Amino acid sequence: MLIGGVAKAHGVAAAPAEDTVDTGASTAATKARKELASRQLSEAIRKSLEVQAERLDAMRSEIAMQDRQIAVMKRMLAAQEADYRALRRRVGLDVLDQQRGGNVGAAGAGGSAAPMPAVASQSDAAPVGRAPEGYDRPPAVAPIFDQPGVLTPKGKLVVEPSYQFGYSSVDRVDLIGYTVIPAILIGLIDARQVKTTTQTAAVAMRYGLTNRLEVELRVPYVYAHTDTVSREIFTGSAENRVFTTSGHGLGDIEATARYQFNDGGADKPYYVGWLRFKSRTGTDLFDVTTDCVARCVQNATGTGLPLQQPTGSGFYSLQPGVTWLYPSDPVVFFGNVSYLHNFPRNNVSLTVLGGGKQPLGRVKLGDIVDASVGMGLALNDRASISIGYDQSWVGTTRQNNHRVAGSAKAVLGTLLLGGSYKLSDKRTLNFTLGVGVTRDTPDATVTVRMPTMY
Fold first, then answer.
1. Grouped pLDDT means (10 residues each) for the chain, 454 residues
2. CA atoms of 438 and 333, how far apart (whole Å)
3. What is the pLDDT of residues 5-26, one digit of tens each?
4. Signed CA dihedral, 226, 229, 230, 231: sign only
């Protein structure tokens, strides 16, 4: 019994130790499992975050690439738009639209040929493309006046050779005597017919200092021929005499400056101011010999006509003026107003036969007021026609502050018809026909010009 009781007591004492060992091992295993699970969860989260970061980086790269592609496409679109505008201008569609007042009214003043601006960020704010030159210039029409309406672009040179043929015929009948009754004249009749042919070959050079300012130099070469059909003034001859004279040489060189004041558009006028200075480089009436034996004034010895035709006026002149153009679909109206002032000359004299001189003193030619108006119509992208009317009021000539005997004010009226054809992008052929509608105006004037841009 004693032995059995001791064994029982020993068994009871050993049981708690085994339970304690088992409990400690379970706690350690649980902790280990938790740590393993925690490590596995952290590793999964880390891998997931790395995958998400890689995806975000890929998306950022793709967005950046798409931004670059969009910027490139915007530049390409702006370049294509600029090329389209330039192509329209090259084929003449912009000019046609300006003449008809179409695209300017739709796009605003000066917006017909400017490229569309590229919408970009601040880093891409540099301008793309270049606007064609002269997009705010007046519309081109067939020029029928001396003043062209379209100015030369900046840095461009226009060389314009021209040829002009003019013909005039003047009939004059002088009755020297007195009438007994309206049907009977006692005295002499001086019947005279003057036929004048003038040919002028000229070269004009225009250079654009800015898009609104140009200068021009014109150098003419003149050939003049005159046939005067008359009868002896103090004889009873029934036969006509023909007095023929001619002359050729350098004419009066001219210099002109033009400035465009404003930006016009559809139903908005353009204004171009200009100032011309004319020299007296040509041979004038005081340089040639006159058909007079001793005197020409108050003397009837000779015809009183020059033995050689002058090629210049003999006076310096200054002419300011304003040219305006008004586009209105489907035509372009234009006009010109100017005032020509002739500076007087002192101590001039005529050269008569035998080498003598007849002093005339101070001579002042009459000033000229000129006004013209017309309209142009584009037939297609290359051809256009114009029609207009030009009228000048010419003052009297004065000698030593007195009106010259026989000098009277004159009105010169000319009906003008013109056409223009664009041979290429830089060359145009212009034709003008002027028909005199007043007695003192030349009967017909034909002008051919071919401006070429360099």
1. 51 50 67 77 83 88 90 90 80 57 42 41 43 52 65 90 90 50 47 83 94 93 86 57 85 93 81 93 86 60 75 92 87 92 89 78 91 90 91 90 83 92 90 90 92 92
2. 24
3. 544 545 544 445 455 555 666 7
4. positive
Question: Using CA atoms, how far apart are residues 154 and 17, in angstroms rounded to an integer?
Answer: 111
3-state SS of 370-436 is EEEEEEEEECCCCEEEEEEEEEEEECCCEECCEECCCCCCEEEEEEEEEEEEECCCCEEEEEEEEEE
**In the block, residue with structure tokens 């002093």:** 359
The model's pLDDT over 88-107, given as tens digits with 9 standing for 90+, comes to 777 666 555 555 544 434 44
Structure tokens at 416: 């003008």
φ, ψ for residue 135 (rounded to 5)? -70, -20
- CA-based torsion, 259, 222, 390, 285: positive or negative: positive
Tokens of 366: 């009459």
Pairing of strands 289-290, 345-352: parallel
Residue 235 has φ and ψ, to the nearest 5°, of -125, 165
User: Could you tell me the strand order of the sheet in which 289-290 lies?
Assistant: 289-290, 345-352, 357-364, 398-399, 402-403
Structure tokens at 273: 């101011």
CA-based nearest residue to 321, from 357, 276, 285? 276
Q: What are the backbone dihedrals phi and psi of residue 349, each rounded to the nearest 5 degrees, phi first?
A: -155, 155
Q: What is the 3-state secondary structure (H, E, C) of 116-132?
A: CCCCCCHHHCCCCCCCC
Q: How far apart are CA 344 and CA 395, in angstroms?
A: 13
CA distance 92 to 107: 17
Lookup result for tokens 């200054």? 318
DSSP code string of 55-114? HHHHHHHHHHHHHHHHHHHHHHHHHHHHHHHHHHHHHTHHHHHHHHT-HHHHH-TT-SSP
Burial class (CB in 10 A: 0-12, 13-18, 19+), 421: middle
Whether residue 296 contacts residue 302, with contact meaning beta carbons closer than 8 Å, is answered with yes
Contact of 260 with 137, CB cutoff 8 Å: yes
How high is the pLDDT of residue 97? 57
